[in-house]
Design a protein that fits this description.
6 helices; transferase; N-acylneuraminate cytidylyltransferase activity; nucleotidyltransferase; CMP-NeuNAc_synthase
Length: 226
Amino acid sequence: MRLAIIPARGGSKRIPRKNIRDFCGKPIITWSIEAALQSKCFDRVIVSTDDEEIADVARRFGAEVPFLRPAKLADDYTGTAAVVRHTIEWFEGNGILYEEVCCIYATAPFIRAEDIQSGLEKLHSSNADYAFTVTSFPFPIQRAVKINTTGTLEMFYPEYYNTRSQDLEEAYHDAGQFYWGKASAWKEGVILFSERSVPIVLPRYRVQDIDTLEDWIRAEMMFKCM
């Protein structure tokens, strides 16, 4: 059996009510719920939240909210893995066992059902514990600079100063959309960013992290161009 978990706490600080704020015509969490349902990969699609309003919105758009998340798992410090583990164990306590679990972020409007399907296929065709979305950095990370304590610039990797950009290894980062994983891996706390994961590579134009209002505006502009 397979389960989709969409974590969506109510206490977002930088963008108040972020998980149900309108994004291009409907609450942003809706895009994640709809993609999960359209993928037809799951026996159940549930939202883990501590907030009644979020729960109502989630149910209205087709997700289940079988419980309200405990306050201790809805603070500013609790990570996604703990929320996923809690949900798996809640179902086990009610006699329902899942073999594969996909954590889908609530603020991922660029998510597509076919990518979720591809992730499941990759999980099955590999010996990995996880499969999740990544995208490439738009500039070689080896040429990155920082502003040091004197206010001047300094390279993170000065040894690459004279290396041509086309000769540098391409780097990727988490695309922040979804994470397929074996239920056992989630429960055991297996690290995502390791050799036990395989990538689903997305083009950069379909990836935008949304943490600030500036991110939100940029994401809506990108979305309307697609």
